[in-house]
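Human: You know discrete backbone vocabularies at least as well as I do. Show me how you would write down a chain together with its backbone fold. No explanation is needed for now; the record alone will do.

Assistant:
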Amino acid sequence: MLKGIVPILRMFDENKAKEFYLDYLGFQLDWEHRFEPDMPLYMQISRDTIIIHLSEHHGDCTPGAALRVATDDVQALQQQLQLSNYKYARPGIEETPWHSKEMTVTDPFGNRIIFAQTMTE
């Protein structure tokens, strides 16, 4: 039985990753792991029911991934993000031909997160 999915996204700078995912997007840090103090970081972050792993390990994944995250209120999320004053992003909301409202943010490593709200007709 399948229970869910946890994407792994590549990161290159721990401080930039935490500024983007924790401070800007509002995720919380669940745990961090390094095999040794001077080795790459692997960490888990979460917000509500969404879990993401971020990795500095070379072979784990390729930068430039895209994730779609379902949300009930993309406009409220956009307003929350605007209040954080993150200087590298001011995302807008797009109404798509496939009946959704979407807001895309790109992390400092080229990974895109698309927050999508299905519109009712």
